[in-house]
């Protein structure tokens, strides 16, 4: 790891940037894909400074990839978007691809999705286009060892914290493996929400800013995932929710899963890179466990909200 | 602290999903006082475990609670002391008062352009809350007659260190970004440095003064 321990008494003997001829374990990006970012479990605890949580959008998929690679849940993985990515391994490394199912190849040869695969030194791991869903997760034994920012290696696309999204030629250092890869007889995959995304919404804190008709629209309306969705929020298109009040809401704290309704009336479900404060009313909150499905919903997917009274 | 009508609850807890609570109070002073009380209770170990305490304009959000409803029932009964008028040493930010909206602000204030620096640097501010970008603080302390509207058209790029005004707030852009605040000057102070401890120069509750620099 860089960025830590360089001024300690052990720094000379602990310096992993010198040593073997092959250099420290690292990956080189061959094909970055549409948007591939480094993600871990994020940086909770800094929202009061304007720093959001960030972290893997499909957290169960991220954690599964780590587990199968023999890593703790908090090790950093790659989160791809739609068309995967490809990296060259500097030294032999174990890798696991989970999340959106996709073809996985090592030097062109098909290998398993959802299982530990060996990538020899110099070989290219290619994570292909998602066959369903949006985001695949790629864990490497030892994890990605880019320098952490405020305790996390996650790229927050809103605040700009964390490592830049992958670019061709970029080098990603790897940590030391800390355990053998795990074996799973069956890899759970809920599947992309093809038939439609059903999101329970705990009403509040600002459901009283909307008319009774708007709350009925929320419950019965045919919404779809909008193409403008990203790591900040799942945007929807569909019937507009009508406000009961024209007032302006002073900025207030926002949580993961908050369903914010901007002036156009189309609900936005806040995902990991959401702003920490906002001035549009939040009609309700989607519980965190339901957001992994939202992270895999492709644009056009029908969305149904199921309001729940607290 | 504004007196509230007898019988009216001093704070209203609102449900925010299964693990959070938004506590609404009468105004900015009350929000800052509640935030200070929450930090005191957390330091004393008498607050239930919580991941985030996020003050804002007239609310404080508590996220990561095991039982938000239990805290909601408790928090309405708290006796929250009003915000202490002073205490501690303020952070002092040197400012060159040469912002692009200086003349506009002077006109809104009804003073000459060269009087803005003296007025702004003569006040003491407090970070009410942060948001918009890492380390961007919303500073209160402007008397009501100095509140100015945002620009009708936001700028696509405001430089890092720009000192601005909007509504009841003054603030400093931690980095170059789009922005709609009226700009009165610029500071070289580094508001945000992720490699620094603490990364944010201004955190909620921090007292701030601006100083005229050449």
Automatic annotation (TrEMBL), chain B:
Q: Name one GO molecular function term.
A: hydrolase activity
**What UniProt keywords are attached to this protein's entry?**
ATP-binding, Hydrolase, Nucleotide-binding
Which Pfam families does this one have? Answer: CT_C_D (PF02682)
Organism lineage reads as: Bacteria, Bacillati, Actinomycetota, Actinomycetes, Kitasatosporales
Q: Could you confirm whether the keyword Transmembrane helix appears in this record? A: no
Name the record gives this protein: Allophanate hydrolase subunit 1
Domain spans labelled Carboxyltransferase: 11-202
What is the species listed in this Swiss-Prot or TrEMBL entry?
A: Streptomyces klenkii
């Amino acid at each position: 790891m860089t960025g830590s321990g360089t001024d300690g008494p052990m720094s000379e003997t602990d310096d992993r940037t010198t040593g073997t001829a092959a250099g420290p374990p690292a990956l080189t990006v061959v094909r970055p894909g549409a948007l591939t970012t480094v993600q871990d479990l994020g940086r909770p605890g800094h929202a009061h400074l304007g720093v959001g949580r960030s972290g893997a959008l499909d957290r169960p998929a991220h954690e599964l990839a780590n587990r199968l690679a023999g890593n703790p849940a908090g090790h950093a993985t790659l989160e791809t978007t739609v068309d995967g990515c490809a990296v060259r391994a500097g030294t032999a490394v174990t890798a696991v691809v989970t999340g959106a199912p996709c073809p996985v190849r090592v030097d062109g040869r098909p290998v398993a999705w959802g299982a530990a695969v060996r990538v020899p030194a110099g070989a290219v791991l290619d994570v292909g286009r998602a066959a369903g869903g949006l985001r695949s997760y790629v864990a490497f034994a030892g994890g990605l060892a880019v320098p952490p920012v405020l305790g996390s290696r996650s790229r927050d696309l809103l605040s700009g914290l964390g490592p830049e999204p992958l670019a061709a030629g970029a080098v990603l250092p790897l940590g030391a493996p800390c355990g053998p890869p795990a074996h799973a007889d069956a890899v759970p995959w809920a599947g992309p929400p093809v038939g439609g995304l059903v999101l329970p919404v705990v009403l509040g804190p600002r459901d009283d800013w909307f008319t009774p008709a708007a709350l009925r629209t929320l419950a019965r309306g045919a919404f779809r995932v909008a193409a403008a969705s990203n790591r900040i929020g799942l945007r929807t298109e569909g019937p507009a929710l009508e406000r009961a009040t024209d007032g302006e809401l002073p900025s207030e704290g926002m949580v993961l899963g908050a369903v914010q309704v901007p002036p156009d009336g189309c609900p936005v479900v806040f995902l990991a890179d959401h702003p920490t404060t906002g001035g549009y009313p939040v009609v309700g909150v989607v519980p965190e466990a339901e957001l992994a499905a939202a992270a895999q919903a492709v644009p056009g997917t029908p969305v149904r909200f199921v309001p729940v009274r607290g | 602290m504004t007196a509230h009508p007898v019988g009216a609850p001093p704070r209203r807890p609102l449900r925010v999903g299964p693990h959070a609570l938004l506590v609404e109070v009468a105004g900015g002073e009350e929000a800052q006082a509640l935030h200070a009380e929450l930090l005191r209770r957390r330091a004393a170990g008498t607050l239930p475990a919580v991941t985030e305490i996020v003050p804002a304009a007239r609310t404080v959000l508590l996220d990561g609670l095991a039982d938000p409803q239990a805290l909601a029932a408790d928090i309405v009964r708290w006796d929250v002391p009003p915000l202490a008028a002073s205490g501690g040493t303020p952070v002092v930010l040197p400012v060159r008062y040469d912002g692009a909206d200086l003349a506009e602000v002077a006109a809104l204030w009804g003073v000459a352009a060269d009087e803005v620096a003296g007025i702004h640097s003569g006040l003491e501010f407090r970070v009410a809350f942060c948001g918009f970008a890492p380390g961007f603080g919303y500073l209160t302390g402007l008397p009501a007659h100095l509140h100015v509207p945002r620009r009708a058209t936001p700028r696509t790029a405001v430089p890092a260190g720009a000192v601005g005004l909007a509504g009841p707030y003054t603030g400093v852009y931690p980095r170059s970004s789009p922005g709609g605040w009226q700009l009165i000057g610029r500071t070289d102070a580094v508001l945000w440095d992720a490699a620094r401890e603490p990364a944010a120069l201004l955190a909620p509750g921090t007292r701030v003064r601006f100083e005229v620099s050449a």
